[in-house]
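Write out a sequence, fold above all:
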Amino acid sequence: MWYQRLFGAALEAAQRFAKAAGQDAKKAMPGELIFVVPLDAEESDYEIDLGTETGVTKIPIEKRLTFRDNFAISGMAVGVLPVTVDSGGVPLWGANHAEYWEDPGVFSVAAGAAKLNESQCIAGVWNGHMTFQNNEETKIVRMPLRGFRTVQTTQAATITPYSGGTAYKTANEHNGNELKSLGGIVKVAGGNENKILIHIECKDKTNLVGTATRKNYLYVVLRGAFIKGGTIAELQTK
């Protein structure tokens, strides 16, 4: 599939970056960065720090960029992660997958006294935009996020898996198609205060956050390749 080539394109670029810094090409290896940010009914703008030194969290499914490494980005996915919480409000990480469109079978809270139901609020993620910057330059400016919306193959709730079995809930098939090319390779260096600024276009965010038993998180994946020790190598050559 074409989206699987994103790894290959990033790895080739990372190998070139490594050689340019006097490193062995084997310092480049494919990987992903994953960022998880709680959605807030009062906020429209989210700042995501790519580095571990400025954005350390205790979310176990996250993967951020360490100071010593560089990362070559070839693809990106923007989704919303519905996370089940227990009776004490503790998130049960790993129990849910991210969604890449405003699936009403998942985001099912009715509008109630608010103007928008939950699915309509979630749609505001992909009707927003993003800016990608670090302390040296702005790499992407107010890119619309609508191209990152991916309606997956969905099974209807009336389909049963086998005779006498329980009917499926709405199930989205994640086949990698949610990863989109950025149109080129974007290289980020660890320690350069890399940030993604995401704006959600939603005027009534009352139902954006989820429910008492399920909380919604902004979910961003950067696919590409690490250049291990790349930042240190660049500093040594200056």
The mean pLDDT is 82. The first helix runs from residue 5 to 20.
